[in-house]
Write the C-alpha cells for this entry.
Amino acid sequence: MNYDYKLNGVKLTTAMKEKVEKQLVKFEKFFVDSKSLNASIRVESKKDKKIIEVTLRSKDFFARADVIDSDFYSGIDKVVDKLNVQLKRSNQLLKNVNKKSSLHASLVSDNSFSDSQIEVIKHKLIELVPMDLDEAICRMEALDHNFFIYLNSETGKVNVLYERKDKKYGLIELKY
C-alpha cells in the first residue's frame, strides 16, 4: 500500500505515522491487488480538534471516511472502524448486485454481512421539474433536505444538488 499524507497545522510524528500505517494495512485484505492500493491521509488541526480523513483507492474502487476528534489516535481508530464497515457493506452489495462487476472483481469476497442487514426502507417516485440552480437551492432549503434532484432547465440533464459538511453546496451533473 502506498501512503500519501496531507497535513495542515499538524506535525506528523513517527508514532503517528506508525499508528496510521499499522491500522490501514488491515484493509489490504479487502483488495485483490493490494500493491496498487493508495491511502491518502489528510489531517487538519482546527482549534483543539483534529479533522482526520482517509481515502483508500485502488484501480477502480475507493472508500473515504472522516472524523473530527480531539485526539489524533482515537480519531484514527474511529476512521478505521468507519472504513471497515463501508468496505464490508460495499463488498456484500457488489456481490449481490452483480457477481461479474469489475468493481467486485477488485474486492476480496467477504461474507460477514448478510442480506438481511441491507434493506431499502423507503421508495419514492419523483417528478423531474425543469428549473435553474437558484430555484433548486430554494426548493431544497424549503424541504429542509440535504440533497435535491432536478432537471436543469439550461442543459436538459438531471442534476443532484447537495449540502456539504461545510454548509456550502455541491452539484453533481450527470453525464449520460
In short: The domain at 130-173 is CATH 3.30.505.50 (SHC Adaptor Protein). Residues 16 and 73 are 7 Å apart (CA to CA). The longest strand covers residues 38-46.
